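INFO  loader      accepted 1 record
INFO  loader      residues=437
INFO  predictor   begin
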Amino acid sequence: MTFKMNTSTWLLALLLPACQGPDSPSAAGSDPSPSIQAASGPKTPAQVPAEVSLEDVCSLALKHHPDLRRFPYDDRAADARRLIAGRPPNPSVSLELEDFAGNGVYSGTRSAIYTATLVQLLETGGKRGARAAEAGAAQARLRADYETRRREVLEQASQDFVEALAEKESLALAERELELAESGLQSVGSQVEAGRATESQRKLAAMAVTQAKLEVRSSRRGFERSLARLAALWGGGSKPSRVRGLLTPPPKGLPSRAQLAGALESHPEVAAARRREDEAQARVKLARAGRYPDVEVGLGARHDRASGDDALVLGASVPLPLIETGRDGVKAAEAEAASAALAIESARLDLQRRFESAWAAFADGHDAAVTAENELLPGAREVFSSIDESYRLGRTGFLEWLEAGRQLAAANRRWLEARRDYQQAAATLQALTGQSL
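INFO  predictor   done
INFO  writer      dumping tokens
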């Protein structure tokens, strides 16, 4: 075979390397993708201080929470899919060998005809643009979903931190109540020895000490559980031993309910629903474009070995939409788009429902905390202070003193619960509205 007779083979040799992408498994010495290497690498442990603030907890959760750590890889994949969707189809190469391995003059390859053809699919109807629009909307929806999850993680971090503060104060209250109960037991013991109290009263005081010790142990375990829940926000491992701060009382007034409700429209769940509608509309365009047949054109070279002649080959093919016309695909895509449009309103209604529930808890917690701070707690303190002074002067009995202490403890607990409920409801409202309270 002369060089002239190998024209088609030479053309094919030029085309094949162009069709082998840089990510081909056959590429010698190719390294794994950096993103795959990063994903398969060891997780960096969270550096957790012994005492954490709310800012520390939120920062650790945002940096190390598994759901949020996945997003850069998901976004990278979505970006790659968007780039792929905007590219035209790859060309293909075909090689044909005719008139060989027969009888007579067709025996062997003496009369063979070699044809090498480069074939390219030409898309019509705007298919590539519709694909790119769908992929772009999918990436935007992914980012909105990430923002939703980010708000949820921050809400959970805030609520868990508030719970840890509440458990910390609960433990401090239990320890003060134990000190008070032990003081009462000592006082009753002295009175029993002096003949001014009965043995039953001493047993009652001892029972109060036992109950206070149980409450201390329970509160300590509750505080340890709250620290473990905080550690779960950044994937477990190291957990803090202390939390910084106290549950602050709420301000006197409530923020504007209408202003907070108006911020729901910018919630990422609404944005994600809109992006899903964009995806559905892009699929409608793609389905409509699918009704336009694509044209496949080919340009090649032919070599006739018998005559030694060469020639160009030009071809084109168009599918005939005789059986599948694409109408049903368009109807399905349009129905999905209509459903996606209604899902936006569903997202708004769901956010409104959650807002109403969160606002009610927020307002109730605010009212309870303000009432407990301004009315319940001062009254209980005043009553106990008066009875305690009277009891030490011997003018009041032990049972009355014990009941006053219980009422003061109940008032302290109620104030603690009201502040906790208020601040946890505030965290939910912040996650829903994106507004600081």
